[in-house]
Amino acid sequence: xxxxxxxxxxxxxxxxxxxxxxxxxxxxxxxxxxxxxxxxxxxxxxxxxxxxxxxxxxxxxxxxxxxxxxxxxxxxxxxxxxxxxxxxxxxxxxxxxxxxxxxxxxxxxxxxxxxxxxxxxxxxxxxxxxxxxxxxxxxxxxxxxxxxxxxxxxxxxxxxxxxxxxxxxxxxxxxxxxxxxxxxxxxxxxxxxxxxxxxxxxxxxxxxxxxxxxxxxxxxxxxxxxxxxxxxxxxxxxxxxxxxxxxxxxxxxxxxxxxxxxxxxxxxxxxxxxxxxxxxxxxxxxxxxxxxxxxxxxxxxxxxxxxxxxxxxxxxxxxxxxxxxxxxxxxxxxxxxxxxxxxxxxxxxxxxxxxxxxxxxxxxxxxxxxxxxx
Length: 374
Fold this sequence. Notes:
The protein is an alpha+beta fold. The longest helix has 18 residues, at 5-22. The protein has helices at 5-22, 51-59, 123-126, 147-164, 194-202, 289-297, 313-320, 346-355, and strands spanning 31-40, 46-49, 64-77, 80-91, 96-107, 113-122, 178-182, 188-191, 207-219, 225-235, 240-251, 257-266, 301-305, 326-333, 338-343, 357-360, 363-369. The chain is 23% helix and 39% strand.
């Protein structure tokens, strides 16, 4: 029996980023000559590369100390899987850069998967962009179905309808389409029927404007196209929210393309990770809301979630003592894969909450300020 998409994606993610840190020169083995790879370099330039370029590119990761994965979303697709990863790249000079990396994993003849498509962008660069790419799309007609030509036409029409007439956006999909959208409350919803897709887009009427910061497209499986869009949506309350939306565009029988796959997530709520936050003495600038909550009532206890069922008190203590001294018997693990850690000082709790998440093995442990019940 074939593994579930989430199982395949988790195994791939663990192997990929671990190898990227430990033996970057071997990461090219995840790819083939048919792979399409587009990466944004640290100079801000987007490049497409070959197998030789893949090998050379990964050798340039020698100054990266860690990858912290903030979120990972997976969707089954035609003869493969779409995996959308949001993370932070932490360099040896303590610089942190947030990134988005979207893969299309295609099956191999002898079992397993390889990376057919890979689009990587730094997200901190997108924040500096103010122009809306929808206003600069070339409208000149062409007979060549290049990835960027198809992407330009799709992006312009899709987001125009999403803003002006969301009741018709379902026409970009078919009954075979799969839509996964993470709402403003952080919950990922999956819709697999055309009626459900139609109802979903009718619920987006509070969006006033969509600004497209970047879009990247590649040839993919079965004459389809792999498209990743980074943008910003302005809601009725005038609050802008950044998003990433990944599509697999499949060809229609009568010409044109439809969205077979669609994975949408908001990016604003994903916080860059600072695992060794306790060593950073400069906390006088801007603190996030979780940090302010800790300061407000000088709490010494934190909540930790997404724990492994096999983790014990000793392992959890060793992972969190970097933030400060933990009280005797101050670690409590619940059966529902969450727990509480009580420090001697609120400063230690503050540092842990500021980190937002840490990695223990291959699992990312969620850290939050503990909200006491009055």
